[in-house]
Amino acid sequence: MGGCYSLISSTKVDNSRSSQNYSDPIKPSYSGQSGSGGGDTGNVRRGGEEIYSSNLKAFSFADLRSATRNFRPDSLIGEGGFGYVFKGWIDEQTSTPSKRSSGQIIAVKRLKPEGFQGHKEWLTEVNYLGQLHHPNLVKLIGYCSEGDNRLLVYEYLPKGSLENHLFRRGGQLLPWQTRIKVAIGAARGLSFLHDLESQVIYRDLKTSNILLDMDFNPKLSDFGLAKDGPTGGNTHVSTQVMGTEGYAAPEYIATGRLSSKADVYSFGVVLLELLSGRHAVDKSKSGMEQILVDWAIPYLNSKRKLFRLMDSKLEGQYSKNEALTVANLVLICIENDAKLRPQMSEVLKTLENLHDSNRENASNLYRKQNNDQKQPQRRRTSADVSSSSSKPRSRRSSDV
Hints:
Layout: E1 5-6, E2 19-21, E3 44-46, E4 49-51, E5 57-58, H1 61-67, E6 76-79, E7 83-90, E8 104-111, H2 118-129, E9 140-146, E10 149-155, H3 162-167, H4 176-195, E11 200-201, E12 210-212, E13 218-220, E14 227-228, E15 236-238, E16 242-243, H5 250-255, E17 257-258, H6 260-276, H7 292-300, H8 306-309, H9 320-333, H10 344-374, H11 382-390
Parallel strand pairs: 2-15, 5-9
Antiparallel strand pairs: 1-16, 3-4, 6-7, 7-8, 8-10, 9-10, 11-14, 12-13, 15-17
Helix pairs in contact: 4-6, 4-10, 6-9, 9-10
């Protein structure tokens, strides 16, 4: 779970007709619409705030403290700008605290009292994830709002974040095909958000916010910065610039104008990290190498130089044609001109075609190997022996 912060302390708000101006959403407007999978929702008031989902469990602070063993250090599994994430256990039927290593494992995110994101982002996340359901979005089970305590309860994803697998020393190596699988899943999650009747812009895509289940299926997490997309023919919404350095789109940083194409840019950066095994921003490097996008452009533009960009941990175990396709996809996703970037649905289609082509090639190879093994071996008969013995021998020097 990475930290989020304001990239620009103050942003001029565009009041032109081509933009829509409003504060970060508290109430999403797509509850129960086709495609969201959210079902019926209701409004629940908690201490002066409104939770727009009846599907979520309201936990007591005492129960979550017990479930996490009093938020002990050995239960800590993550930390970010929002707060701390702890591992806990609850009874699957009653949702009450259960004994360690029994019942349902949960991840409990506890807001820091001085946390930058604060209560507003906590409520935004509750309301988005309380109503949006998709295999590639993390499942929010419930929340706690007692006094100054603000907590969120999620499904537990045992493989942790994509960031840890790509960059942590001693982490499990992600093979090429697993990287493509993760990219496809993340693209599906973003495409789902963008294609809703009332569009949602995620605004904080990065490797630390992509969590992995036991089978390395990715799920987008941390929706505190999510925002409703433009409506009524508007091309963008104008807002204070929020996000993470290295992932935020240049036009958004410069103007505060936000559209779904900002998410496409961030996705291009994540794809580049999957290719290269390098951080989006690395302050330990010098000059242009600090910013991954700036450093990578010359290699992405050259088929002959692309191998210099590839993650050395892959040890060359990847399809050169697939790597070139992904590199080309990165280039169009990180275009400076947002209008030239593709829609996420187009990005998803390209990645799925890549996956389907690879699967078809593997299937054809498997069938060929099976057919070769199934060819019957004809037994030699006496006629074969007789025929071979009757053939004239080639003359050798010893025969002369």
